[in-house]
Structures are given as structure tokens and as C-alpha cells.
Amino acid sequence: xxxxxxxxxxxxxxxxxxxxxxxxxxxxxxxxxxxxxxxxxxxxxxxxxxxxxxxxxxxxxxxxxxxxxxxxxxxxxxxxxxxxxxxxxxxxxxxxxxxxxxxxxxxxxxxxxxxxxxxxxxxxxxxxxxxxxxxxxxxxxxxxxxxxxxxxxxxxxxxxxxxxxxxxxxxxxxxxxxxxxxxxxxxxxxxxxxxxxxxxxxxxxxxxxxxxxxxxxxxxxxxxxxxxxxxxxxxxxxxxxxxxxxxxxxxxxxxxxxxxxxxxxxxxxxxxxxxxxxxxxxxxxxxxxxxxxxxxxxxxxxxxxxxxxxxxx
Length: 313
Hints:
By secondary structure, the chain is an all-alpha fold. It is built from 14 helices and no strands. The radius of gyration is 20 Å and the shape is flat. Residues 1-10 and 305-313 have low confidence and may be disordered.
């Protein structure tokens, strides 16, 4: 891919803040939180140093993915109001520097995970970075309206990485958490793309509202949200989540459906208030569900079901 160095304003020397911004810290916080859930829920013990090392590697790996995404997407970002102020399109960080920074962090995170945690967690982390950068950023995002659906696997894997850091294997439990995030991703990002559709159209990104139109996108959002409700309750059905989690998953799952129903019948094509509301609720949904699961396991009130047994990898 050709290098891009877009300068909207006169360039200035890069700052620490610019390089921190490349890490997509808000996205990183969600990744670390779901990774922490995997660590807490996994059976067996893990010493605090290893747990903190695993979380650090997950955070750095997520930051590496963000930096590489911003570097490779500079030609797209400069055309979109939401992303034009990022360090690379603004010319504050050269694309080559962002690439070197991202790949260095990626190698560091995977290497440390392999040396200080275990090979399974390191392999999953490496796959996550590869999938987000190579499959989603460089291929799917520019070629198919299903980019978010397929590419969502990368963002869904942190609970499995956290679990593997403790157990060294995968069982049904972490895969159910991966499936939950995987099904949550499309309605979350399609809600964003509804009111940012002009941005994506201008940049030539084939997001669903651009390719199929907003009515089709709203129907897709509602369908995925309906499936998300039982997916959210699956951890309780599998035996590793308790009544607190079940109540939260039911309440917030219904709330997501209510908001998706409002999006389905959205009439304001310019401001998309229902889509913006669903986007905000979806963020709360994931934090609250995983938070409830963490609380149950920390307090020792979660059941210890059969989902913990039978390692597959």
C-alpha cells in the first residue's frame, strides 16, 4: 500500500500524546476489561505478576493494532470528519513512524506473552493482531459491507486470551464470551455508521448503510440485537454465571432490543438520535455484563459449571 502523509494543518513535532492517541485508548480499555474477565473467570490460580503481565500484553497488543490500523487507513481517515484529526492524517506522525511503532509493539506484546505467560495466550494474541490488521484493516474494510461482521472476531478474542493466560487452553466458557462480543459488534458499529454514513461514503468504505441503505441496516441491527439476548444469557445457561449476571444480561438485553426497535423505526435521517442512543447503550451493555461476571467470580458467588471442563486446545 502506498504511503500517505496528509497534512491538514502545518506539521509540528510529534508529542507523547500523539503516540498515545495512536493506541486508541478508549478501544483498548474495553479490550483490557474483557481480557480481565477471561482471567477472573478461568479456573485455577494465576499469580498477580503473571496476570498483570497478561493484561499488559493484551493492552499493548490492542494498542499495536490501533496504531497499525491508523497507519494503513490514513488515506481513508483524512476524508472522514470523525477521523481526520488523528495524528497520521494531520501530519503529526509520519505513516512510516506509525507503522514501525505499531509493529514494534505487536512483536513486544506477543514475545512477552510467550516468555512470561504461555504459548497458547501468545498465539491467540498474535492471531488477534494479524486478523485485525491483515484481514480486517487491509482487506475486509475496503471490500465488503460485512467488514464489521467478520472483522469483529478480532475484537471478540480478548476473553479467550485472558482465559488461556490462566488455564493454557480453551473450553466452552471463553468461547461463549467470544461469541457474545462477536454478535454485539455489528449492531454497535452499524449504529455508529448510520449517522456517519456520509463519512464512509466520502471515503469509499463499503459500510452497510452506504452499500445496502439505511433501512436494510436498521433491519440488520434489529436482527442481531434479537440474537444478542440469548447469547448474553448463554453464560448462565452454561453454568459459569449466576443470578446477578443473569438479571443484568436480561435487563440490558431487553434494553438493547428496545433501542434497536427505535432505530428500526427511526424517522430523522439527518441526526439519527435513536442510532446514537443505541451506540451509547451498547457500550454500557458490554461493560455491565462483563462487570457483573467479574463481580460474581471475585465474590465467589458464581456457579462453577461444566463449561469449565473439557479443554479443547
